[in-house]
Amino acid sequence: MPSVMTAQYGDKRRMAETGGRVLAGNAVERLPSGGVNGVPTERVAQAARGLRDWLARHRQLMLDVSAVAIAAFDVWFWFAPDAQVYNYALSVVAVAAVAFRRRFPFLVVLLTVPGFLAGMAQLAAMIALGTLARRKLLSTQTYIAAGLVWFSRFFLWPPDKFLELDWTTHIHDAIYGCIVAGMPIAIGLLVHAREELSARIAELAESRERERMLHAHAVRADERARLAREMHDVVSHQVSLIAMQAGALRMAAADPNAQQVAGTIRMLSTRTLDELRQLVSVLRTTSGDDSPQPRIEDLPQLLASSGLPAALTVLGPVDELPASISGAVYRTVQEALTNVRKHAGGAATSVRIHADADELRVEIRNDPPVDPAECAALPSGGHGLVGLRERAALLDGTFEAGPSEDGGFRVAVTFPLAR
Known about the structure:
This protein is α+β, with helices and mostly antiparallel strands. It is about 60% helix and about 10% strand. It has three domains: about 5-55, no CATH class; about 60-165, no CATH class; about 225-415, Histidine kinase-like ATPase, C-terminal domain (Heat Shock Protein 90).
């Protein structure tokens, strides 16, 4: 069935249903697949890239050929019927020497000067002088070459013709010789400065790209460290609580099925803690910090849900503490309770927080383990105390951890408040 567009304009002028458009006459034809005048866009782009690559590879060769051609045209343009054979020979040598100006710049200038002085190769000498200035800058060779080119323009060959000129012509030739010798040097120095500037810009771009990559790596490393710490603090706290409750249920349950289920839960929790330890080892690549959300005010709820006989004592004002310090205290207590469940079972724990005008002291003590054999089954990667030490160091605090006199364990952290 013909469409509305077909009925209105006919088959020859209808628009393609693929979204392309066809214009009559010499207009550009846009193909549905993308193309210009019937040639696919990919082929056009590939041809353009090939041409650019070819030009880049043969750029110096093309410049050398152009320089020789310009020098040869200059000799042909100043063709003199009454010139001698040696005039043409010196000019031809000068033109041929231009092809080697990149490899032997000073020698090429010496070869082109006779063709300029006694021949017709003025542009050959100027091109050689410009190349020498670009390579050697304002060196001794450049000054000598500039003097020779200036003299070739100032002195008129043969000498008898030079002596016949009046003093005004000599002054004019001297000034024009300065222009002929100075312009190639100026152009050579300008090209060298442009190349140096391009190299510096490219180096700066590479440096910026390298700096951007290093910054991105540092940000990712900090994020990995923060993620590792938060995973260890939060997930390990909850999973160890599950493992402890499952162990208690297995010991208290009389039904064998319930004991088996509790044992399975404890086994899975233990395996989860072990996998978490390995994951934290991978993520912990650097020390980073991000202000945690929990605060000291959340500690009563943390202790109530820990499943441990824990007591909390808070002395001094703690409501106006910085968020970083308050969060670090919460994470310290949380990690200490996790360690108590791992290594001390249901041992009684006391948490004491003392704040004054200068510093904040946090101390967590627990009694000796109730069932050491049961606690030894829980895996530990050793990252908990390391993370607490890192948090304390980032806040200019001090960290202490070790066995207490009564066989328990003590964790103490001090944070300075007058910073």
